Amino acid sequence: MYKYHCLNPIADIGLSQFRDEYAAVSHMDDADAVLVRSAAMHDLEFGDNLKVIARAGAGVNNIPLDRCAEKGIVVFNTPGANANGVKELVLAGMLLASRDIIGGINWVEEHEEDGDIAKQAEKAKKAFAGCELEGKKLGVIGLGAIGVLVANAAVQLGMDVYGYDPYLSVDGAWKLSRSIYHAKTTEEIYSECDYITIHVPALESTKGMINKNAISLMKDGVVVLNFARDVLVNEEDMIDALISGKVKKYVTDFPNPVITGVKNAIVIPHLGASTEESEDNCAKMAVKEVMEFLENGNIRNSVNYPNCEMGLRGEHTRITIMHRNVPNMISQFSTILAEDGINIANMTNKSKGSYAYTIIDAENEITSDILADIEGVNDVLRVRVIG
Question: What is the number of structural domains in the chain?
């Protein structure tokens, strides 16, 4: 029986995929798997039973990835599951920044008791006039699941789209419209585009990437959109740019005391993935990842271990080994099994940064002594036998 615990409410349509051999538990200490959305996990203690954490969403800033890796806990996210919901809100953000829709609505509410409001509106609406998106240049920094959808949708709106992503995947490239111009640098995006939207993860290399230096390269009156992570933008620098008029509008999905209430900042209460469809899609993907890992040892969409799959376990006994990415590990595993007369039917190994993952299908039973020998190898972090 596998046990799982939800740190946040997870859509029922996802949890319903768990079969009878899975049971929900009320305490994380008892769980093999944890499903989480936004709950902060950095200060939590992880019990020895915990094998997997699945984040129903893309960002994993709320999870201590390195600590999990050292304990042999694989962390999944659900890339692309909420991409359409975020894409639609980015498009809404561009429209809100282009046409003073919010100002116009506020004006109407302020004059709701004016019996001549229709006539007055004709006079007042000039104050809320804006521009159209068609023909404008949009720069998309980061062409992952969300960035590709935003770029393609903007093409359909008649925008000239510039895309920048030095790590563009083959899958992403296939999905990208051929009409999109591939910028070679972010500086090209900054200098050429009327609208700039960022869709990159929060890494040391990307935090504060939109700062006074980047803004200085941008067109006067540029619109900047941030639906990725608040730390990607130096908000003090952004406020200065909004006050000076260098940036016409800053649209962000991350409210905080620094940016909230600043004139010409459109601050949305983190609604990017807050749609019924996105939450359902994330829940379904997260549950599938958990089940595939617990039952077959396969890793797909991990953020702290390499993706590594070897299909269904079948009739063999499967050994999964989480270890540090150092030389001679495979040789040591093979030697231990050979000395105990264990024939290897299939084996695969993948690495990612400091960590690696090995899956072995054995034709014989794995005894507790063999398991202990593998666990005793230096730099082995966790060993699990399935079957």
Answer: 3
pLDDT at residue 202, as a whole number: 86
For residues 235 and 253, state if they share a domain: yes
* Beta strands at 265-267 and 181-182: parallel, antiparallel or unpaired: unpaired
Task: Record the pTM.
Answer: 0.83
Residues 158 and 241 in one domain: yes
Report pLDDT digits (tens) over 199-218: 998 889 999 999 999 999 99
Q: Do residues 237 and 123 share a domain?
A: yes
Of the candidates 358, 336, 340, which has an alpha carbon nearest to the alpha carbon of residue 349? 358
Identify the sign of the CA torsion 157, 162, 166, 169.
Answer: positive
Range of the domain at 52: 1-81+276-305
Residues 15 and 108 occupy one common structural domain:
no
Length reported for the chain: 387
Instruction: With both helix axes pointing from N to C terminus, report the angle between 83-98 and 101-110 in degrees, rounded to the nearest 10.
Output: 70
Question: pLDDT by residue (tens digit) across 146-155?
Answer: 999 999 999 9
Q: Could you tell me if 28 and 7 are in contact, meaning their C-beta atoms sit under 8 angstroms apart?
A: yes
